[in-house]
């Protein structure tokens, strides 16, 4: 079934509206808009009202390529650099341990399902792909896949992508709930985020045409410059993720009051985040698993084992070191879903002080995950 891009974008926008209304007016307020929009759109995609991951859509591609980075840019315009000092070291530690946990999870999962037997010659590549994607996001998944020509394994690749997207969405739900459950179990209180300037975390704003025009032009211009610089540096042999350049531009501009207090940035950023999460929900494609038969259950067992071991390491280290549960959750999400997912989780946890640390370690994961993926694939090969 072919879906018009305008139809897809309309439904995604309405899904955000519906999710926000449900959170404001019903018992779903305890779940939060981030979780509700993922579940809401996942249902729509799996019943065929929206295109699935395998069908694809230019809208999905555009949201991942443009709106997800722009959401980071706009929300960072309100970041107080002084508020990240305490979160920085803990975030790096937990992110690093999460990467180690991912590698251990891949090894444990492959042993559990006897991956060497069932996947044959593809065993090293599959191990490397899942190591990469759960150390810093799907960019690493594709980088390893391209090198090993995994795209030629049509049904298997589609199934792996489906499992990856399903577990990534589920893990967003888990990391939203685990900090709350752990605080109740241990008896600790939620850490209060560092004070932020007045006007930050605005969900309702009065915005003028000038303010909107400046925000859009600055945001789009910053994204253009970031991609241009990343490409130019790449030609010189220096691999610098464009999201890291965009983050730097946003932080520099945020220190100037004229940009810092522009009305509308938070609302635009939040809406972009929710559209990004809506696409994450659409990518929870259950039908694709049926194409690979028994391997689907082995892939599910493998990936479930990976994230369980990863989570046990991250939250175990947080427990031993008496570190903040929210920081552990955002660090874990930076591993599993990348920068945009980490930012979305920090927003959902109401922890603005974790925006920047989560984005930075997520950007670090874009490079680290690829190296880890190739390292594991080479070792098992």
Short recap of the structure:
This protein has 381 residues and is an all-alpha fold. Helices cover 74% and strands 0% of the residues. Helix 2 packs parallel to helix 12, helix 12 (265-282) crosses helix 15 and helix 14 crosses helix 16 (355-380).
Describe this structure as you would to a colleague.
With 381 residues, the protein is mainly α. It has one domain (5-82, 91-189, 206-380): Na+/H+ antiporter like fold (Up-down Bundle), CATH 1.20.1530. Helix content is 74%, strand content 0%. It starts with a helix and ends with a helix.
Helix amount, in percent? over 70%
Number of strands: 0
Elements, N to C (H/E): HHHHHHHHHHHHHHHH
> What structural class do helix, strand and pairing data support?
mainly alpha
Rounded radius of gyration (Å): 20 Å
- Describe the main β-sheet briefly: none
At the first level of CATH, the class is Mainly Alpha
- In terms of DSSP E residues, the strand content is under 5%
Count of distinct structural domains: 1
The residue ranges in which pLDDT falls below 50 over 5 or more consecutive positions are 195-201
Mean pLDDT: 83
Distance between the termini: 40 Å
Count of separate DSSP helical elements: 16
Which descriptor suits the 3D outline?
globular
CATH architecture: Up-down Bundle
CATH topology title: Na+/H+ antiporter like fold
């Amino acid at each position: 079934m072919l879906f018009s891009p305008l139809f897809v974008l309309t439904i995604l926008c309405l899904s955000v509206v519906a999710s926000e209304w449900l959170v404001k007016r019903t018992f779903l307020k305890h779940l939060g808009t981030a979780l509700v929009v993922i579940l809401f759109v996942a249902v729509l995609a799996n019943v065929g009202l929206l295109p699935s991951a395998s069908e694809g859509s230019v809208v999905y591609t555009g949201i991942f390529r443009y709106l997800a980075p722009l959401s980071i840019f706009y929300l960072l315009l309100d970041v107080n650099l002084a508020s990240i000092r305490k979160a920085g070291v803990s975030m790096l530690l937990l992110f690093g341990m999460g990467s180690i946990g991912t590698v251990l999870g891949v090894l444990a999962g492959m042993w559990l399902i006897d991956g060497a037997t069932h996947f044959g010659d593809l065993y090293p590549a599959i191990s490397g792909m899942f190591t990469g994607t759960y150390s810093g996001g799907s960019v690493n998944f594709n980088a390893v896949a391209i090198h090993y020509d995994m795209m030629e394994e049509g049904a298997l690749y589609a199934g792996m992508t489906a499992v990856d997207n399903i577990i990534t969405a589920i893990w967003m739900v888990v990391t939203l709930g685990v900090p709350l459950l752990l605080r109740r179990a241990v008896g600790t209180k939620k850490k209060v985020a560092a004070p932020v300037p007045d006007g930050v975390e605005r969900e309702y704003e009065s915005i003028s045409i000038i303010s909107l025009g400046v925000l859009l032009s600055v945001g789009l211009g910053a994204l253009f410059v970031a991609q241009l610089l990343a490409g130019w540096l790449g030609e010189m042999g220096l691999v610098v993720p464009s999201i890291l350049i965009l983050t730097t531009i946003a932080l520099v501009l945020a220190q100037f009051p004229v940009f810092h207090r522009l009305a509308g940035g938070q609302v635009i950023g939040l809406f972009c985040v929710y559209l990004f999460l809506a696409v994450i929900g659409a990518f929870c494609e259950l039908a694709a698993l049926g194409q690979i038969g028994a391997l689907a259950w082995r892939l599910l067992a493998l990936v479930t084992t990976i994230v369980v071991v990863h989570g046990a390491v991250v939250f175990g280290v947080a427990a031993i070191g008496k570190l903040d549960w929210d920081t552990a959750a955002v660090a874990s999400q930076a591993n599993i879903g990348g920068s945009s997912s980490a930012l979305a989780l920090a927003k959902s946890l109401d922890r603005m002080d974790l925006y920047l640390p989560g984005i930075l370690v997520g950007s670090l994961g874009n490079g680290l995950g690829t190296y880890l993926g190739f390292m594991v694939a080479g070792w098992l090969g």
